[in-house]
Amino acid sequence: MREIYFYTDIDHTLTDENGSIPGEIWKTFLASLIGLSSLRFNFGVATGRGFLRALQVLDSSLNPNLPIIVLNGAEVYSHEQQNKPIFSFPLGKELRGEITPVLNRFYKEVKLAAFYPIGERQAFIYAEDSVMEQIRKNPNLRRVLKKGTYNMGDFIEWLKQNETGMVEISLNQPHLQLSDEFNQGLNISFDNTWLITREGVNKGTTVRRVCDELNISSENLIVAGDSQTDIPMFRLPEVTSIQVGNKDLGVITTYRVDSPSGLAYLLKSLCFK
């Protein structure tokens, strides 16, 4: 039996500009695989979302049977046992300590700062008044809010006391010199958002670890994404890579499609070629 293993980002890869998955197209594609004796399609997500926010997008028709990778590779959950991560890559006290003075230095520019404690489904969030108001009005976002504050001092104390795999910091304007602020390196920064994970932890390294654990060959692996956080997956040796959308990511992928619907159609053609 031929095996295909598919790992995909969620936002703007599975979901459209409205945050919705083109459900009928995906359901038709997945239904076409049912009962095939010559092919087994295995599905997983690798997202920057926290675990609960990832689950909010996935419905019964898109139920992953591969481990769920969240926080850009910092935590991995089993699709069978979802109460705690099967492995995680915490920042550690030293790197969290380096983040504190950066927050103090740039706090007037920070629009939002957030982190999920290791193994927790809810996040600690600092936000400007208008942003926090939007969060509290959105049922899906409100559900993942563990504690929220307008006071940067509160947020820094939470960060000191809680281990986490990733800290997200969004600014009101871009700042390109963040890497100069850290001795241990920075996972990624783009536009006006900083995504800080432990050095060497990203979607690519974590997908690779999952594949090693499950004895998955890169030749049977397809990965899809739309942004800079997905580049480490695209660069895995021998994988089939798919970029969704038209951003200039500075990397060559095996295929490029213009939308989540296009991704579903391409996957169908790859499965039945």
Layout of helices and strands:
Blueprint: E1 2-8, H1 23-33, E2 39-45, H2 51-57, E3 68-70, E4 75-77, E5 87-88, H3 93-106, E6 110-117, E7 123-127, H4 129-137, H5 139-143, E8 145-149, H6 152-161, E9 164-171, E10 188-190, E11 193-197, H7 203-214, E12 221-225, H8 231-234, E13 240-244, E14 255-257, H9 260-271
Parallel strand pairs: 1-2, 1-12, 7-8, 12-13, 13-14
Antiparallel strand pairs: 3-4, 4-5, 6-7, 6-9, 9-11, 10-11
Helix pairs in contact: 3-6
Structural notes for this entry:
The protein is α/β, with parallel strands linked by helices. It has two domains: 2-88 and 202-271, HAD superfamily/HAD-like (Rossmann fold, 3-Layer(aba) Sandwich); 93-197, Hypothetical Protein, Haloacid Dehalogenase-like Hydrolase, Chain: A, domain 2 (2-Layer Sandwich), CATH 3.30.1240. It has helices spanning 23-33, 51-57, 93-106, 129-137, 139-143, 152-161, 203-214, 231-234, 260-271, and strands at residues 2-8, 39-45, 68-70, 75-77, 87-88, 110-117, 123-127, 145-149, 164-171, 188-190, 193-197, 221-225, 240-244, 255-257. A hairpin with a 2-residue loop joins strand 10 (188-190) and strand 11. The longest helix is centred in the middle third of the chain and has 14 residues, at 93-106. The chain starts with a strand and ends with a helix.
